[in-house]
């Protein structure tokens, strides 16, 4: 099943939530009421007020400029507008300079460890030598969960005892990665620390270790977000961006009760590329993000 089909299947509940409203809208006429109702429907899709207003304003302006008189023409314009808004930054991971280091951050319960396991399996399937670093030493059994995924994906893992210094785990992992000629190190970090200052201190220590041990390595810092949290996810992303200097987003659970619009809100309001999305429980259900296919499935 390709990206479009999986996205369409994953957004089945979106279709139930807002799809009928969109279908009814695009079956009607291109009037002021159409734009008002479209705006309301997009806000209900978790797109957020600011992004929804901008999308509709852009659609109205382009429809006038291109002399679009019917809703089917407006639908095609809307698809193009959404695709363009989603095409921010570099949608692919930078893994060029080895060993590339990818830090995964995010609150507990968003599917961070599972995402790392799935991405490890994907990269292993592409012929890369992958090493996992179990640097979430605060959560009970976090390293055990990541170990299970390392076994499923048939990749190596570096871990220490519960409560160990996360930066120490990363140090060991980088040393192992260099010794074993690994292509990429995927680092699981703590999902929750006591406050923002603690989080900044912890990520700062890890970052300094990477700078010192692998100064020329490619770096990514990805925030894993649960799509079902809607606008709360946008708030999380904004806070983590201020704290951690994100390079991208992984959006999980788009097959749940997520309404889909949050993808556009994150890309547009924060200027962050969505690099991967999770659309199911299977190992191959974590997929590189495709803006055009997502826009088509969303509509």
Q: What labels describe this entry?
A:
299 residues, alpha/beta, 12 helices, 13% strand
Number of strands: 8
Distance from first to last alpha carbon: 19 Å
Tally of contiguous helical segments: 12
Give the rounded overall mean pLDDT.
Answer: 86
Strand order, largest beta sheet: 3-2-4-1-5-6-7-8
As residue ranges, the low-confidence spans are: none
Spatial extent as radius of gyration: 21 Å
Largest sheet composition: 8 strands, mixed
Helical residue percent band = 40-55%
Helix/strand/pairing category: alpha/beta
- Overall geometric form: elongated
What is the chain-wise order of helices and strands? Answer: HHHHHEHEHEHEHEHEHEEH
Determine the strand fraction and express it as a percent band.
5-15%
Structure in words:
The structure is a single chain. With 299 residues, the chain is an alpha/beta fold. Helices cover 54% and strands 13% of the residues. It contains twelve helices and eight strands. Strands 3-2-4-1-5-6-7-8 form an eight-stranded mixed sheet, with helices on both faces. Strand 6, helix 11 and strand 7 (274-278) form a beta-alpha-beta unit. Helix 3 (32-47) packs across helix 11, helix 5 (71-86) runs antiparallel to helix 12 and helix 6 runs parallel beside helix 7 (142-153). The longest helix is centred in the C-terminal third of the chain and has 18 residues, at 196-213. The radius of gyration is 21 Å and the shape is elongated. The two termini are 19 Å apart.
């Amino acid at each position: 099943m390709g990206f479009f089909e999986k996205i369409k299947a994953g957004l089945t509940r979106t279709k139930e939530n807002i799809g009928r409203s969109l279908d009814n809208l695009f079956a009607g006429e291109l009037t002021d009421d159409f734009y008002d109702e479209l705006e309301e429907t997009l806000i209900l899709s978790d797109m957020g007020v600011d992004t929804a207003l901008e999308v509709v304003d852009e659609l109205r302006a382009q429809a006038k400029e291109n002399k679009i008189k019917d809703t089917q023409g407006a639908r095609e314009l809307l698809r193009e507008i959404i695709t363009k808004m989603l095409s921010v930054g570099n949608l692919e991971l930078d893994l060029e300079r080895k060993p590339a280091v990818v830090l995964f951050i995010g609150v507990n319960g968003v599917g961070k460890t599972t995402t790392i396991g799935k991405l490890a399996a994907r990269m292993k399937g592409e012929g890369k030598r992958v090493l996992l670093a179990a640097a979430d030493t605060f959560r009970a059994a976090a390293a055990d969960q990541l170990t299970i995924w390392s076994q499923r994906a048939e990749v190596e893992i570096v871990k220490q005892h519960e409560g160990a210094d996360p930066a120490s785990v990363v140090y060991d992992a980088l040393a192992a990665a260099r010794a074993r000629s690994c292509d990429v190190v995927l680092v699981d970090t703590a999902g929750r620390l006591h406050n923002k200052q603690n989080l900044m201190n912890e990520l700062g220590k890890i970052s300094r270790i990477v700078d010192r041990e692998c100064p020329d390595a490619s770096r990514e810092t990805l925030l894993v977000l649960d799509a079902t949290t809607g606008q709360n996810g946008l708030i999380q992303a904004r806070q983590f961006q201020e704290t951690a200097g994100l390079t991208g987003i992984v959006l999980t659970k788009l097959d749940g009760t997520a309404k889909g619009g949050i993808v556009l809100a994150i890309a547009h309001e924060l200027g962050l590329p969505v690099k991967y999305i999770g659309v199911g429980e299977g190992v191959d259900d974590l997929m590189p993000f495709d803006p055009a296919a997502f826009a088509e499935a969303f509509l």
